[in-house]
Amino acid sequence: MEAGDEADIYDGVRAQFPLTFGKQSKSQTPLEAIHSATRRSSQSSLSSSPLSLSSSKNNDSNLFPSLSSSSQASLNSLRNRNPSSSSRQSTGDFDDSNPKPPSDSVEEDAIVGPPLPPPNSIARDDAEDGDDGGEMIGPPPPPPQGPVDDDDDGDLMIGPPRPPAAINSDSEDQEDEEENRYRIPMSNEIVLKGHTKIVSALAVDHTGSRVLSGSYDYTVRMYDFQGMNSRLASFRQLEPFEAHQVRTLSWSPTSDKFLCVTGSAQAKIYDRDGLTLGEFVKGDMYIRDLKNTKGHITGLTCGEWHPRAKETILTSSEDGSLRIWDVNDFKSQKQVIKPKLARPGRIPVTTCTWDREGKCIAGGIGDGSIQIWNLKPGWGSRPDIYVEKGHLDDITALKFSSDGRRLLSRSFDSSLKVWDLRQMKKPLQVFEELPNHYAQTNIAFSPDEQLILTGTSVERDSSSGGLLCFYDSTKLELVSRVGISPTCSVVQCAWHPRLNQIFATSGDKSQGGTHILYDPTLSERGALVCVARAPRKKSVDDFEVKPIIHNPHALPLFRDLPSRKRQREKILKDPLKSHKPEQPITGPGFGGRVGATKGSLLTQYLLKQGGMIKETWMEEDPREAILKYAEAAKNDPKYIAPAYAETQPEPVFAKSDSEDEEK
């Protein structure tokens, strides 16, 4: 055979395989091992059997650990092209070491004569003919495969008991579905760490590729599932306002911008990469009427982007107002909403939210009342729905259902209430014993809205940690409680509809993180993308030694001595070595020196500048200045003349010694 023909044959065979086949690649950790490492401890016993089954079932993949999934699929397709050969190979009739022609195998497999009776009938005939006393030739027949009564087990069981039959994975999946009919993805868990205090804000974009987390440590961390590896590190960290806690984060409907609400009076807008686009103006705190201010005057409490319009956002503040803003105009708000109060004063608005269509606004007030406004033409600050005593304490979160008929409320009074918007006099259900110590504790729906989930805080005297509670929205009863952290409280929670993964933030005074619950069989992308991506290994070429620069002229031995002229010039520049006198001080004095001021008092300075005080003492003669008071002192003596008026009316002056010497 010529070399060209061999090359053509090789190219034809090689074309059946993917490009990655035959190439040496780095050893990768099996995905089953990764999922077993991230599996929650509460379900470790249930997860052991599926892993063993998958490993025993996929023996072909274990033979080629370095091949990718596409290579293995191509090999399986090539192997299954001849079904007859594959069936024979599986039954042991085909041997690669000693191949036989197909006709021989068919002849050997052919049965000559009548068919053999079934084994059950043979065993039954042997039992009936037991009085023949014939000897058993060969090994004993296998036990019958049919059902055997419990009374006969002791007579037919020979040797040790048989091992239990392998559980079918399909039947096990059915049992799991029956056990978890709500299909909550919580078999595995990872934690996004990095914060040093409790995580109080959470936002996941609509595509599920980026996660934002804000904390009481004044920072916002940005995570990207597509760019993260198994280290789960954030790619950017922001500090919106110095020494202000991050309270709320919200993505725009197009996920190209996000809103950041902190404890300051000004909310900020960032783009998708974390660059600042602008901040809203702060109002004048000395104006009493809040409608006349251009913005909030005290710290913000909550904020949310409009679910439909990408230019509109809603904020609430401790100044007792809600404001609607346009992101294209940071200088003033579009609308100011003043809630209805039972008595005059300022009560903070603790939370706010939109409904799914953006046609209603709900606000939770610090006095426990719930107020709802419909955005219809000509609407104002008067609420359409007002519940005066919705809760006994501050309301931390409100949530509308997708159909707009129900409202969920969460409060500091350790309760969660379900309301019917058509009848708000009394809640449909009240779930109690839900400790809440953080003003950002929220509520969330599952994607199909069959479940309601919320987090709980850790109490001092309680043995339970932070929990994530699930409630049935139809039956209004508790479904499950999932322990997130034994020592940290759970604040924010979310169930992403596309990823089918549950996010829960937790933390305390010294640490904080975002827990992601998922199931490899139910969830998509998100955590599954980054948890299987190993971090980049450091290469030898990454090490770079700092270069050592040898400059002999910089050493003292090789320096040129400066000339005397340069030495003198250098000494003259030094005020201490040159004994330079101190310069006069202009302005107020300091360091024990009196400054040359134009006057110590403001009045003197103004009079001098106005020309009312003139300084002419430098032009006057001191003798003439004294003698001008001589006549006044002679006519009206005050001290010396009255003392000698009686004893010495005539003044006697001392004689000069110089006059005696002259004589």
UniProtKB/TrEMBL annotation:
Region (Disordered): 19-183, 572-593, 643-663
Sequence ranges of Low complexity compositional bias: 41-90
Domain of life (superkingdom): Eukaryota
SMART domains per the UniProt record, alphabetical: WD40
A GO cellular component entry from the record: nucleus
SUPFAM superfamilies for the chain: WD40 repeat-like (SSF50978)
Compositionally biased tracts (Acidic residues): 170-179
Entry-linked InterPro entries: WD40/YVTN_repeat-like_dom_sf (IPR015943), WD40_PAC1 (IPR020472), WD40_repeat_CS (IPR019775), WD40_repeat_dom_sf (IPR036322), WD40_rpt (IPR001680), WD_repeat_GAD-1 (IPR051858)
PANTHER family: GASTRULATION DEFECTIVE PROTEIN 1-RELATED (PTHR16017), WD REPEAT-CONTAINING PROTEIN 70 (PTHR16017:SF0)
UniProt-recorded name of the protein: WD40 repeat
